[in-house]
Amino acid sequence: MGDLALVVLAGLPGTGKTTLARRLAAAVPAAYLRIDAIETAVIRCGLARPPVGPIGYAVAHEVAVSTLGAGVSVVADAVNPVAEARQGWRDLASRTEARLVVFETVVADRDEHRRRVIERKPDLDGQSVPTWEQIQASDYLTWDETRDGPRIVVDMIDADEGYRNAIRHLGN
Fold it and tell me: What is the pLDDT of residues 147-164, one digit of tens each?
């Protein structure tokens, strides 16, 4: 990839965003920005309580701008549940002239998605992960390409196939 890329992962918790983002960051190569890590640090420092809200995204955007400004592509791993979060990445790409690629991860098999959420363990010190009930009750806004911009849906039922699909779209 000759140009700078801003690769944004979106999707409900437990759909494989982190798995895919880590692999893409290594392949691009790119800096890996994980909203969960930012939010966990903010909570650990006593600056907010869950849910953190826009703080994690604001920090990630500033880090992404600085990283892109240093000539390094970025892979951002975030739920992006609302239109404002999705618009923020589009605005950032426009400001930095980075090529924006958005992947929305899904697990098309609802039972498998539920199993993954139930079995998920935090991998960050102090991280809290949502329950299946919290995910079902969340305000995750269904993607609308007119409002939210284009995105590529990646079914992560098979993580290797999901990765291959994403790489094909990135042109690697």
Answer: 999 999 999 999 999 999
Helices and strands, number each (H, E), in the chain: 8, 5
Cis peptide before 51 (omega within 30 of 0): yes
Instruction: Give the start-end residues of each E strand in the chain.
Output: 5-10, 31-34, 74-77, 99-106, 152-155
Phi-psi region of 135 (alpha: psi -120 to 50; beta: other; left: phi over 0): alpha
Contact predicate 101/60, CB 8 Å: no
SS3 content of the chain, % helix, strand, coil (to 5): 45, 15, 40
Using pLDDT thresholds of 50, 70 and 90, give the confidence band for residue 24.
Answer: very high
How many domains does the chain contain in total? 1
Specify if 172 maps to a domain: no
* SS3 state of residue 15: coil
User: pTM of the entire structure?
Assistant: 0.93
Is 171 inside any structural domain? Answer: no
Domain range for 17:
5-166
DSSP state of 74: E
